[in-house]
Amino acid sequence: MNEVIPFQDCVRVLFDRYWVCQEDDPEMLYAIKQQKNTLEAYFHSQFRYHLIIEGTFAKLEKIPSVSQPSMGILAFEREKSYIFFACLLAYFEDKGEDQQFLLQDACEAMLNYVPEELGPIKWQDKSTRKAFVDALKYCRDQHIIVEIDQQIEGFREQFDHEVLIQTTSMFRRILTLYFNDLAKLKTINEFESAVQKEIIETTTPKQRIMRTWFLESALRHEELTPEERQALDCGFESWQEEIESQFDFMHVERYKSTSALIHSEYQYGEYYPNTRNNQIFNAAIQWATEVFDRVQSGELLPDLYGRIRMYEREAFHIFLVVKEKFYYGWNKDFTKIKSSEIAWKIVFKVLKQFSFVKSIGDKQLYCFDLAGRITGEYQKEES
Q1: What does the alpha-carbon distance between residue 252 and residue 154 come to, in Å, rounded to a whole number?
Q2: Is 0.85 topped by the overall pTM?
Q3: Cβ partners under 8 Å of residue 55, min gap 6
C-alpha cells in the first residue's frame, strides 16, 4: 500500500471540502481514518470543531465565527434554490434512507413542503424548474441522492421529464450540528443569535481567531472583541510558530489592520475551484496592486491602523487606470462587459469578499493592508 497521506494534507482537505467521501477519494478517507485520534484532538483543541468519521465518509463541522455571504452554496443563483434544498431534506427525512422515488412525485410533494411565503409553485415556469434542478443537482453531487434512471438536468427543459431517484444515508449528516433541537428557532434572527451565543459561550478567543484564519481570507482586527484582541497580542507569535511547525505550506502574517493565513503554494478547495484562472479575481488583484504601488510611492497614506480610506469614486478611477494598463490581457468574457461601472461593481464584490476592502458608508470604503500581500501583473514576454 502507498504511504499514508500526511496529517497536514488531511487537515487541508477537511477544510477545503464539505466532506470526504469514499466514492470520490478512497485514499484520503483511509488516511483520515488512520489518523482519526490525532485529527480529532487537533480540531477540538485548536477550533473546538467536531470531526465526524463514518464508514463511507468523513466531515469536519466547520462553524465560522461570523458567517459570510461567500460561505453559501455557490451553485445556487437564487434564493428559491435554498428553499427547495431545505424542503428536499425534509422530504428525504420522511422517505427514509435508500428509498426510491420519482422526480414527478417529489414535485408534487414540494407543493406541500414549501412555505406559503414563496407563493404557488408553477412547474411550467422554467426559472422555477431551474432552481429545483440546482437543488437536486447539489444533492446528487453531495451523494445525498443517486440517479437510478434518467438524469435530473432533463427537468430543466421539460416539466414532465421523469427520473428515478434514490436517497442515501448522507442526507442525515448534511446539516451542521449546532443544536439539539432546531425546531425551537422560529426566525433567521433567532438562529443567528443562538449561533453567536453558542460560539461565545463554548470557544476561547484563540479558537475563534483560528476559525477565521482557516475559513476566511483575513482577520480584520477592528472586528475583534477586546478579549480577542488581547489574546492575539499576547499569543500571536506562539500561534504562528504552532501553525508553521505543523504545515509546510502555510504561515501567518500580521499587519496593522489585518492578519492572514498565507498559502505558499496553490491550494484551491471546492469552495473556490476556479480562482486561479478567474479573470474577475485577476482584475481584483491588479486593482490591489495599483493601490499598493500608490502607497509605496507616497501618493496614498494609510492611517495608524494600516487602512486606506477613500471615496468610492476614487476607487473606481483606480480601476479605470488598471483597465487601461491590463485590458489587453483580460479574457473575452470580461472584456465584453461594455460598461466600466458594471465591471467595477463585479470586481468590487470580489474585493469585499476576500477582505481587501470594506464599505463604511457615505460612499466611502477602507482598503486594508492585506491588499499589498498579493500583487499581480502579466509576465514580460521574452524578446
Answers
A1: 47
A2: no
A3: 22
